[in-house]
Amino acid sequence: MGYTNYWYQKESFTKGEWDVLKEVANKLIEPFRNDLDIVEDDENVINLNGVGENSHETFILTKEKRELDDWEKKSDWIVNDYKEKGAFRFCKTNRKPYDIIVWNILLKAYEIAPIKLSISNDDGEKHGSQ
């Protein structure tokens, strides 16, 4: 299957929270920039993956809490989960080198806005209520 990081985003980040997070994310990414595929066309999204054989799934963290997709709205348990916990996302990194960057960005996001985010991974590490 592959190693995965998970998160629920209960609310959108404020501009101040997001600016701090983006600054930290850029510092985490910078030493590994040549080893990452980074999409930098939206200032409200952190979007990265590994390169070549070191890629797996793309990590996407957004400033705004995402809305439910139409197919999700058809499931009562997904709608209830969304209302209770927030917007669910995950990134399967399969423990490839970029995983450490993904996890550290999520840790920093949780540190900045612990009420807005809960995070976990397949190692059993959890922060916030899930």
Key features?
single chain; 130 residues; alpha+beta; four-stranded antiparallel beta sheet; three-stranded antiparallel beta sheet; 4 helices; 7 strands; 25% strand
Mean pLDDT reading: 96
**End-to-end gap:** 22 Å
The secondary-structure class comes to alpha+beta
Number of contiguous helices: 4
Largest sheet: 4 strands, antiparallel
The poorly predicted ranges are none
Q: H/E series, N to C?
A: EHEEEHHEHEE
Q: Mind telling me the C-alpha Rg?
A: 14 Å
| Approximate strand percentage | 25-35%
Query: How many domains, as an integer?
Result: 1
Net shape:
globular
Count of individual beta strands: 7
Question: What is the element layout, followed by pairings?
Answer:
Blueprint: E1 4-9, H1 15-29, E2 36-39, E3 45-50, E4 59-62, H2 70-73, H3 76-85, E5 87-92, H4 99-112, E6 117-121, E7 126-127
Antiparallel strand pairs: 1-5, 1-6, 2-3, 3-4, 6-7
Helix pairs in contact: 1-4
Task: Summarize this entry quickly.
With 130 residues, the chain is an alpha+beta fold.
Describe the structure.
With 130 residues, the protein is of the alpha+beta class. The protein has one domain. The chain contains 4 helices and 7 strands. The strands form 2 sheets. The protein has a 4-stranded antiparallel sheet, with helices on both faces. A hairpin with a 5-residue loop joins strand 2 and strand 3. Helix 1 runs antiparallel to helix 4. It is globular and about 45 Å long. The mean pLDDT is 96.
